[in-house]
Amino acid sequence: MxxxxxxxxxxxxxxxxxxxxxxxxxxxxxxxxxxxxxxNRALPLFDNSAMDGYAVRAEDCSPGTTLPVVGYLPAGxxxxxxVAPNTAVKIMTGAPIPPGADAIVPFEETEExxxxxxxxxxxxxxxxxRFQGEDIRPGERIIAAGTVLRPxxxxxxxxxxxxxxxxxxxxRVAILSTGDELQELGDEPTTGGIVNSNSWALAAAVxxxxxxxxxxxxxxxxRDSLREKLGAxxxxxxxxxxxxxxxGDRDLVREVLDELGVKQQFWKINIKPGKPTAFGLKGxxxxxxxxxxxxxxxxxxxxxxxxxxxKMMGHRTLAKPLFKARLQEPVxxxxxxxxxxxxxxxxxxxxxxxxxxxGDQNTGIQRTMVCAQGIALLAADRERYAAGDRVDVHxxxxxxxxxx
Length: 404
Ligand code: AMP
Ligand code: MG
What we know:
This protein has 4 domains: 4-17 and 169-312, Molybdenum Cofactor Biosythetic Enzyme, Chain A (3-Layer(aba) Sandwich), CATH 3.40.980; 20-43 and 134-168, Molybdopterin biosynthesis moea protein, domain 2; 48-130, Molybdopterin biosynthesis moeA protein, domain 3 (Beta Complex); 323-395, MoeA, C-terminal, domain IV (Beta-clip, Beta Barrel). The protein contains 7 helices and 28 strands. The protein has helices at 4-14, 151-159, 198-208, 223-233, 252-259, 294-312, 367-370, and strands at 20-24, 37-38, 48-49, 53-56, 66-73, 88-91, 103-106, 110-112, 116-119, 129-130, 141-143, 164-168, 172-178, 182-183, 194-195, 212-219, 238-242, 263-267, 271-272, 278-282, 285-290, 323-327, 331-332, 338-347, 353-357, 374-378, 384-385, 390-395. It has a 6-stranded mixed sheet, with no helix packed on it. Strands 16-13-17-21-20-18 form a 6-stranded mixed sheet, sandwiched between helices. A 5-stranded mixed barrel has the order 22-25-24-26-28. Strand 20 (278-282) and strand 21 (285-290) form a beta hairpin. The longest helix has 19 residues, at 294-312. The protein is elongated, with a radius of gyration of 30 Å. It binds adenosine monophosphate and magnesium ion. Magnesium ion binds next to loops. Magnesium ion is lined by residues 179, 243-244, 249, 292.
């Protein structure tokens, strides 16, 4: 059986980035830029003042010097004056440095009177000047392909006047829930009926990373129903199914996918929960068959589908970064299998991170997803961990808040 990492590597090797489209700068926020962004000019574009004060020639200045003020330069004003020897020009933050000047003396370091200024301290050439290109030089790479555009990146791109950004198109993900027992949300609950929550959970997870979810509804456990819905789902960029792939099932989902030309790449991963996960390809279209259990479906999405969708949307960072956290309580697990434990993540008294099981780890317990901020990856070869042992953890979804 494939290990956790083998399965993820195999999936990531099989999926390819989608085509590139150009979108308005603000619509690119939160998405990954598809190409390196190169500065088309310098930032700042011209030498300018970092302070409100006086533009001077440093060689004219020493503590106590008094200089006549011969001009005034507001930010955005015309550069219509210069600094001749032994003169000063009043200048505002962001205004261009006038010819002749090589330093700015902030107001706070002067005594002002209407037509002249007295300097209180020493002045060096270059003081309080933001030099052309000191932030970024023309031709420099300012953002690497695959970077997610946060407000900071948007700020930089806007400073360069870039109105359109190349991004990979949003992945269209068809989602199909399967099972005779499933009922839609509005239906009156029947004995033996299970509300189809997976479609909604998976759609939310797709949306959270910027994909477009297409809900195909429910297929019953019969070939005709599955053939019709799975066939429709294969028109999307990615197809996700849930249920009908466990050992106890009649394996109808995998059988019908096979009939429809989906080549199974693997079935079963050596993990708990999520073992019966299957992955196939129809041409270049990835098909993920996730377990039906709501907890297993979401965890296998998080670990295997999410990185694949991010690769398709051109992200550079695919797997969540792992950090080490201390276990608050001992854990015993089945040796020989990686356990993906739902954990509450907390900050301990020393400001370090600690984790504790978010509750009964039985996959039937949906509450544990709500109480969890992270997943702890417990190594296949370990059988027990003691309280205080450090384990690898990543946060769930796009969460940033920790538990309290
Ligand atoms: P299965 O993978 O078919 O063995 O299903 C495992 C469990 O998940 C069963 O209790 C199913 O009723 C439940 N289940 C399957 N599909 C869904 C779904 N779409 N929403 C909620 N629960 C589901
Ligand atoms: Mg079933």
